[in-house]
């Protein structure tokens, strides 16, 4: 038996699907040694933690703003105190805000490494 530097044995159980997934990830990484792959992932792997509490609050506020804009548009359409160009400008700005929010949600945030 070879003299090993690593003399502590760690074990864990996986399902057949998890094993297949691990093997797929190993293949994607170009690593054939499972022990080396698992060690590398345990030491250097990242855990992604998603907390959308603030995003939910932002979405609620954006919905309120959208409702207010709709009310303003209704008033503007009935008595013409606000120009249609102003309404169009507000709608375009809201669309930009929504796009920014969706973009932010689509990016995964790395919390721990």
C-alpha Rg (nearest Å) = 26 Å
Uncertain spans, ≥5 residues at pLDDT below 50? none
Can you give the helix content as a percent range? 55-70%
What does the overall shape look like? rod-shaped
β content, as a range?
Answer: under 5%
* Category by helix and strand content: mainly alpha
Order of helices and strands: HHHH
Number of strands: 0
Give the count of structural domains. Answer: 2
| Biggest β-sheet strands, sense, barrel | none
Ends apart, CA distance between termini: 35 Å
Helical region count?
Answer: 4
Nearest-integer average pLDDT? 80
Q: Describe it for me?
A:
This protein has 113 residues and is an all-alpha fold. The protein folds into two domains: 11-45; 53-106. Helices cover 66% and strands 0% of the residues. It has helices at 16-29, 34-44, 53-79, 84-106. Helix 3 (53-79) packs antiparallel against helix 4. The longest helix is centred in the middle third of the chain and has 27 residues, at 53-79. The chain is rod-shaped. The mean pLDDT is 80.
Secondary structure topology:
Blueprint: H1 16-29, H2 34-44, H3 53-79, H4 84-106
Helix pairs in contact: 3-4
């Amino acid at each position: 038996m070879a003299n090993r530097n690593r003399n502590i044995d760690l074990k864990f159980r996986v399902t057949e699907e998890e094993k297949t997934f691990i093997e797929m990830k190993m293949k994607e990484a170009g690593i054939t040694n499972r022990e080396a792959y698992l060690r590398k992932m345990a030491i250097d792997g990242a855990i992604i933690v998603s907390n959308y509490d603030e995003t939910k609050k932002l979405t609620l506020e954006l919905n309120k703003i959208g409702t207010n804009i709709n009310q303003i548009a209704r008033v503007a359409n009935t008595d013409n105190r606000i120009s249609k160009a102003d309404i169009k400008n507000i709608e375009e700005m809201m669309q930009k805000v929504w796009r920014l929010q969706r973009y932010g949600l689509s990016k995964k945030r790395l919390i721990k490494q």
